[in-house]
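Sequence in, structure out. Go.
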Amino acid sequence: MILELETSSEAEGDLLAIWLYIAEDQPVNADRYLDKLQEKALKLAEFPDLGRDRPELVKGLKSFPVDRYNLYYQITDTKLILVRVLRADRDTTVIF
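Output:
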């Protein structure tokens, strides 16, 4: 069963910040990279167990790496909720 993909407002903000950062030099690449992140999120909605459990951050949270970023998500019975999209080198214990 493919889950419905829902994006939190925090993740929307993360994606916008990523796009703006890349678009400073390469607007076309910014679009492509956001497309890549969206494709990975949709793949996770199809195969949600691909991600790594992150109980040390939040109960029920999972993460999946995409280049220098991690997709953080939670799963319900019908949805995959994209919670945050953060650089892999960020201190996530402070954020979560």
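Check: The longest helix spans residues 27-46. The CA atoms of residues 42 and 78 lie 14 Å apart.
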